[in-house]
Amino acid sequence: MGITQILFWILSVMALFSALMVITSKNPMHSVIWLIIVFFAISGHYLLLNAQFLAIVNIIVYAGAIMVLFLYVLMLMDLKKETEPAKNRWLKVAGAMAGGSLLLVLVAALRKVDIENGIAETRTGDIGLIENLGTALFTEYVVPFEISSILFLSAMVGAVVIGKKE
Amino acid sequence: MIDWGILLEKSILILAVVTISLVIAMYATWAERKIAAVIQDRRGPNRAGPFGLLQPVADGLKLFMKEEIIPNASSKFLFIAGPALAMITALMTSAVIPWGPSINLFGRDINLQIADINIGMLYVFGVVSLGVYGIMIGGWASNNKFSLLAAIRGASQMISYELAMGLALIALLMLTGSLRLSVIVSQQSEGMFNWNVMYQPLGFIIFFICALAECNRTPFDLPEAENELNFGYHQEYSSMKLGFYLFAEYINMFISGVVMSTLFFGGYDIPFVNEANWGNAWWVGLVGFGVLMTKALFFVFVFMWIRWTIPRFRYDQLMNLGWKSLIPLSLLNMVITAVVILLLNK
Fold it and tell me: What ipTM was assigned to the predicted interfaces of this complex?
């Protein structure tokens, strides 16, 4: 096993274990911190695929901004009550069904993937480098890129409107 | 096949950089007191050793010897993780800084940079955005209302000022065309008029103000406003855990001084001297490193000078400055830079 493979296994175990801890932790604060570790593991995977820009943006945006806001909200909540009221049984059934159908869709989508020939190019391919990604985004995919930026703008305006409602 | 030489080289470099950061942070505490003393017309520390130079050692020893108290009601693991995170994020930025020109030693070309990645500037920004976790987790895990309030203040302050900092960096990035810090430094090494601060003075001022805010230094030290919050987010901490929090602040100060010198003031470039044809002997690297240190320590001095001169902002003033002044100003800076670059290239 080369170093890349060893790192892959370490990162995968880290990501899966932390993801499980996110949903099994009783304390939401701990869940958020486990989720941050998941993001770091995924960034590690991106680095193995030589997608440096994606890796660092994942850390800046998710670990550095969104999770900070999550923590921010959670810190203001009263987490002392250890016993959370049990959810309605029908709610549990509905949740299980929704999650199960998502799993079904994912499995159906991934079933036909050609795993044997689709080996990841580790440390080679350079499309993930910032120059190439920038060129691709601003030439080939400029329209979707601009549309998604308008989406962000509308979300921002919406947030301001909601915040000003008083 | 692993190149053991590079492994050894990088390990020594990491060890050296971390040690230097820690020693400088140690003596920054001494310098802060001396500067405060000069500004307030006092003597400052002068008992331990000549000029009080052993004072940081005595302080460190004292912190290590103190009783360690962990509050009962808090999450013990997170309580310990808080100062550790603060320290780690403070030290992580140093990995992408070019500390000097590459030198030739024992027949090897040695790059005085731990990792020359092509996303250097984004890495710095990423680590800055993680810096808030030490304060937030520590403040929350203390299970104390004052600590929590201070942590919330710290978090919102850092998020607000990160934006303006990022926008100032974007304007700089348009100028350099590269995120690699070694390229940014070598672009500036032609002479003093190639330094980025000459082209981005407004960007530098915005970056400097945001760096003050990110380091929680006066006038932005609201997370540790003693007269409002008792002691701030590290109120429940004792012994060396408290020491780590205080220490991380000084390391952050030093590292942001280094980042500012690298991005805006030519890094290890010596002003008025053309050092390009000096070759790559070991002493050239040392001189470059010394020049970078001089620039960085000058910024640390300015930080301290500001701390003992300017009073603290009120919270609403802080938010107004961040959102209503700095962000529009940095957006304007960005647009002007873009337009000028476009016109000059045409």
Answer: 0.82
